[in-house]
Amino acid sequence: xxxxxxxxxxxxxxxxxxxxxxxxxxxxxxxxxxxxxxxxxxxxxxxxxxxxxxxxxxxxxxxxxxxxxxxxxxxxxxxxxxxxxxxxxxxxxxxxxxxxxxxxxxxxxxxxxxxxxxxxxxxxxxxxxxxx
Length: 132
Description:
Layout: H1 2-38, E1 45-48, E2 51-54, H2 58-100, H3 110-131
Antiparallel strand pairs: 1-2
């Protein structure tokens, strides 16, 4: 019991350190980006014939590209989460199926279990080929 409590405390401590570290990294990155945009000199601005032309910094353009990539990754991660969740439910059903069947009936359900596995396998192959 004490060992389990120690593991939980260790996991909790490591998790807190990760969260604090990621927060510090994000704050540092945010501050550096904000400093770059605050220190933009007037030489990046050009006036001509009543128009104001602004030359954007390369860092700003790369920041916009990174945000677009993150949005695309978010969509992909949502798909992976859905597939992962379905796989988890399927695996959990298979893992607990044998405990829910009465021993005397296991022989009668063998052919149905094999057919179920084949059906799920075919659906999985179809999904993987359609996503590629």
